[in-house]
């Protein structure tokens, strides 16, 4: 059986193997169709001999989704794509708890290497933020019970992070009772397809292979490699030598080659030599070379891999190079110089390559915060730190440092560089001295002669003679892990001709600071607080914004509340509690001292709770005691005010009323502590109290043998019932986060004023006297004791 036949036979076996794991339900045919499509893609694009395709279902998770307020509301998860992965399929299944729940769009952000940087509603960033991402994707799905697939062909090797949330818009806000308690779930299933058996190219050696359709090779690039090339030195078709060789060469770092612009392609049929050369390659990862046959029949090819390596001459006195499985390692014998003075020399003849100085920064961690680290030069001999480098004309000065995936990706990388000439140095007016600085992750920004920097990473190009220039600062939110390089180059331009010319001042000192810190160096633009959360064992910092500020550092004020509006909201929420004063005075006048005390405590704690409940950075915030005790007292006393009012209205006499009041206080104190924000905690005591009132009135009507209360008394209750009903309706159906200040203030007013109409007009003094035989019931010999009411109004009767 030929190798292609073996490959397709193996694919069929693979299909049968996966098919056995498909659930036997209504989705079986759909899953079979998806698997067939996947295998068709793989067999059409990756059919080569001696390389096997395997399937690994490596990840499954189900998470609950929350509405977006800040980054802390995200549900985040990650998945690792190892080397040699040809395809990763993300399958998302979003669902909702009830059909009555709206179909809110589910947003999913994928990013390579670090946490996704979500810009909800295109939040603005200040000019010093660099939003750099190697690769990211944004998906929108609907929770309608269908499965959505997203495929990553030839993904970058490493960890991919995802964040999911649901939309929150003002039009979708609902009240506490109209909310159907909607829950949204997201099921995530990740399937990856790695390749096995890819041969490893040996350095500086000839490697032979038989090319039918496609051949894959790989090799590992260490951090000291700044250029490599792969050449087809011999190409034969049977016994015939072919020149040029009818093949295409594809090269890509950290991922298998694909059809994107990230893959470097050489068409050997159109050139004199069949050679692919990559300058400034990605370091610390596997690189891949793909050879594609452009003619019918097999080709025998001979390949040779070369690379340019700069070794430190000042750091090591002697070293031994090992090549094992294509990986270069060094064995350091003796360290003889300062770590900061690292100068590199090329391997081979000295005239072939010109290598520049590369300085490595040491990490100094802070004991105050696990996310705060400083990068600086550290001398092994003097045990001192330095933050100065010399930038010399004609050379590119480079420093490097490492961002760790386990410590730094949830923080903000901050780079500050200040480079200017001293004022005593004279610069002729005919010459401009310019320093260009750029940053790059994963590869040295240098092509052998000058800076090689991506457009968005050229972070500074300034005239050093301009003393008003304060230098530059760049902030990288959620930086990707790996080696980062900062390169600086000094050049001089003739102001008349615009041509480059030698600089009169050949060297310039540049001071720098490199650090990682949470949020914006621990701050959030004075409009929020910096918080830290644990995501998959990694700390992630984010700003919790207030007063409707938004953005990564709360810098977006497009929807922010103005200070006069904040003052108005605070006054509404606090001063509306003064409407309890009439109820307090009336209860005291009618000798309801316990009830008056409860109303006063409710007014007091509600006032100061809402004064403390303002945004943390509001100018009008006042907390007489910590926030949580104030919140607890406000919630408890609000419910207790309803309870004692309904017990008074029921007419239950002492000591039973005191017993019910204390029983209610104990039970409510426990329930409020357990379920503080549950609206049922408010409704159950009110409903129970109304039931006690109705039962008491029924018993009273039976004993009096007439309806109680009388119609004219009911007319007095109606305003109170209406106000209480309006207040409860506002609280339960209309109150949302957007209109909280207005609706909650109206709730205060309605509830406080309604108490006036519920308190009985006066207390009833009773005395017990025996009645005549005419009032004896059932022929009893004992006189019946009745209450002698000091009022002629039967509505004032209290049992």
Automatic annotation (TrEMBL):
<feature type="transmembrane region" description="Helical">
    <location>
        <begin position="632"/>
        <end position="652"/>
    </location>
</feature>
<dbReference type="Pfam" id="PF12036">
    <property type="entry name" value="DUF3522"/>
</dbReference>
<dbReference type="GO" id="GO:0005886">
    <property type="term" value="C:plasma membrane"/>
</dbReference>
<feature type="transmembrane region" description="Helical">
    <location>
        <begin position="714"/>
        <end position="734"/>
    </location>
</feature>
<feature type="transmembrane region" description="Helical">
    <location>
        <begin position="683"/>
        <end position="702"/>
    </location>
</feature>
<keyword id="KW-1015">Disulfide bond</keyword>
<dbReference type="InterPro" id="IPR000742">
    <property type="entry name" value="EGF"/>
</dbReference>
<feature type="transmembrane region" description="Helical">
    <location>
        <begin position="567"/>
        <end position="589"/>
    </location>
</feature>
<feature type="signal peptide">
    <location>
        <begin position="1"/>
        <end position="20"/>
    </location>
</feature>
<feature type="transmembrane region" description="Helical">
    <location>
        <begin position="740"/>
        <end position="759"/>
    </location>
</feature>
<keyword id="KW-0472">Membrane</keyword>
<keyword id="KW-0732">Signal</keyword>
<feature type="transmembrane region" description="Helical">
    <location>
        <begin position="596"/>
        <end position="612"/>
    </location>
</feature>
<feature type="disulfide bond">
    <location>
        <begin position="545"/>
        <end position="554"/>
    </location>
</feature>
<protein>
    <recommendedName>
        <fullName>EGF-like domain-containing protein</fullName>
    </recommendedName>
</protein>
<keyword id="KW-1133">Transmembrane helix</keyword>
<keyword id="KW-0245">EGF-like domain</keyword>
<keyword id="KW-1003">Cell membrane</keyword>
<feature type="transmembrane region" description="Helical">
    <location>
        <begin position="659"/>
        <end position="677"/>
    </location>
</feature>
<dbReference type="InterPro" id="IPR021910">
    <property type="entry name" value="NGX6/PGAP6/MYMK"/>
</dbReference>
<comment type="similarity">
    <text>Belongs to the TMEM8 family.</text>
</comment>
<keyword id="KW-0812">Transmembrane</keyword>
<feature type="domain" description="EGF-like">
    <location>
        <begin position="515"/>
        <end position="555"/>
    </location>
</feature>
């Amino acid at each position: 059986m030929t190798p292609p036949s073996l490959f397709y036979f193996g694919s069929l076996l693979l299909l049968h193997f996966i098919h056995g794991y498909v659930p036997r339900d209504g989705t079986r045919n759909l899953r079979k169709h998806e698997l067939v499509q996947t295998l068709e893609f793989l067999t059409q694009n990756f059919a080569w001999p001696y390389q096997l395709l395997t399937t690994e279902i490596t990840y499954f998770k189900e998470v609950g989704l929350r509405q977006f307020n800040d980054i802390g509301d995200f549900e985040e998860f990650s998945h690792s794509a190892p080397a040699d992965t040809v395809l990763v399929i993300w399958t998302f299944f979003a669902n909702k708890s009830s059909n009555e729940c709206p179909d809110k769009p589910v947003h999913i952000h994928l990013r390579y290497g670090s946490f996704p940087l979500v810009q909800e509603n295109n939040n603005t960033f200040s000019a010093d933020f660099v939003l750099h991402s190697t690769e990211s994707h944004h998906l929108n799905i609907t929770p309608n019970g269908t499965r959505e697939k997203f495929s990553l062909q030839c993904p970058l090797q490493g960890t991919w992070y995802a964040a999911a949330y649901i939309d929150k818009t003002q039009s979708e806000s609902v009240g506490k009772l109209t909310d159907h308690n909607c829950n949204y779930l997201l099921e995530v299933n990740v399937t990856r397809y790695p390749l096995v058996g890819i041969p490893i190219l040996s350095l500086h050696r000839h490697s032979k292979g038989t090319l039918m359709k496609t051949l894959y090779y790989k090799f590992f690039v260490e951090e000291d490699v700044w250029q490599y090339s792969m050449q087809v030195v011999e190409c034969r078709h049977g016994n015939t030598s072919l020149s040029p060789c009818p093949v295409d060469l594809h090269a890509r770092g950290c991922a298998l080659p694909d059809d994107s612009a990230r893959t470097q392609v050489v068409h050997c049929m159109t050139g004199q030599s069949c050679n692919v050369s990559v300058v400034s390659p990605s370091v610390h990862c596997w690189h891949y070379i793909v050879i594609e046959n452009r003619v019918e029949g097999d080709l025998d090819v001979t390949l040779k891999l070369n690379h340019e390596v700069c070794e430190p001459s000042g750091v090591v006195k002697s070293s031994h190079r090992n090549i094992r499985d294509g990986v270069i390692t060094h064995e350091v014998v003796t360290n003889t110089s300062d770590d900061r003075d690292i100068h590199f020399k090329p391997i081979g003849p000295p005239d072939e390559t010109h290598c520049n100085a590369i300085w490595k920064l040491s990490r100094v961690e802070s004991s105050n915060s696990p996310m705060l680290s400083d990068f600086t030069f550290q001398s092994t001999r003097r045990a001192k730190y330095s933050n100065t480098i010399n930038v010399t004309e004609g050379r590119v000065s480079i420093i490097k440092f490492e961002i760790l995936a386990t410590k730094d990706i949830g923080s903000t990388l901050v780079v500050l560089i200040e480079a200017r000439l001293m004022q005593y140095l004279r610069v002729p007016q005919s010459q401009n001295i310019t320093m260009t600085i750029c940053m790059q992750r994963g590869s040295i920004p240098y092509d052998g002669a000058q800076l090689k920097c991506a457009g968005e990473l050229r972070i500074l190009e300034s005239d050093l003679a301009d003393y008003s220039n304060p230098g530059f600062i760049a902030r990288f939110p959620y930086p990707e892990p790996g080696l980062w390089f900062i390169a600086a180059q000094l050049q001089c331009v003739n102001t008349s001709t615009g041509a480059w010319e030698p600089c009169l001042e050949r060297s310039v000192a540049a001071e720098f600071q490199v650090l990682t810190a949470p949020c914006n160096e621990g701050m959030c633009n004075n409009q929020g607080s910096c918080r830290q959360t644990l995501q998959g064992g990694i700390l992630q910092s984010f700003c919790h914004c207030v007063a409707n500020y938004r953005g990564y550092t709360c810098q977006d004020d497009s929807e922010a509340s103005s200070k006069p509006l904040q003052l108005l909201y605070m006054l509404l929420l606090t001063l509306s509690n003064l409407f309890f004063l009439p109820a307090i005075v009336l209860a005291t006048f009618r000798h309801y001292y316990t009830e008056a005390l409860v109303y006063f405590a409710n007014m007091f704690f509600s006032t100061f709770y809402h004064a403390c409940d303002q945004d943390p950075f509001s100018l009008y915030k006042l907390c007489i005691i910590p926030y949580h005790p104030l919140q607890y007292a406000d919630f408890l006393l609000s419910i207790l005010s309803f309870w004692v009012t309904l017990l008074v209205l029921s007419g239950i006499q002492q000591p039973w009323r005191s017993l019910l009041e204390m029983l209610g206080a104990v039970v409510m104190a426990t329930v409020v502590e357990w379920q503080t924000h549950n609206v049922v905690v408010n409704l159950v005591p009110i409903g129970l109290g109304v039931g006690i009132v109705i039962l008491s009135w029924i018993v009273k009507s039976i004993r009096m043998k007439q309806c109680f209360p009388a119609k004219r008394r009911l007319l007095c209750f109606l305003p109170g019932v209406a106000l209480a009903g309006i207040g409860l309706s506002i609280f339960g159906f209309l109150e949302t986060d957007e209109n909280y200040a207005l609706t909650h203030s109206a709730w205060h007013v309605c509830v406080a004023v309604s108490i006036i109409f519920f308190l009985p007009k006066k207390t009833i003094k009773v005395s017990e006297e025996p009645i005549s035989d005419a009032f004896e019931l059932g022929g009893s010999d004992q006189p019946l004791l009745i209450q002698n009411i000091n009022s002629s109004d039967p509505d004032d009767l209290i049992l």
